[in-house]
């Protein structure tokens, strides 16, 4: 996978001050997707679902809806996600109660 490639890892280490390398990143954790924290919900709220009748119209509606999601909301989602990743890393990947986030 490209994101686990040594060149990709090296580039990220050089360009992101708090980069978490592939060996410290928890494997296959669905709740670690930044889009799941807020973005998909916000996109879904902006979509005109009545216009979706096939894959192509779904893609188009998602593209249009993304334009209406406020950037500050995305930034807030990334901040929450970052805090979650840090806690997960400190907890050695063990389950974290949502109340402690």
UniProtKB/TrEMBL annotation:
Gene3D superfamilies: Ribonuclease H-like superfamily/Ribonuclease H (3.30.420.10). It comes from the Eukaryota. GO terms for molecular function: nucleic acid binding. InterPro entries: RNaseH_sf. This is Transposase. It comes from Didymodactylos carnosus. The lineage of its organism: Eukaryota, Metazoa, Spiralia, Gnathifera, Rotifera.
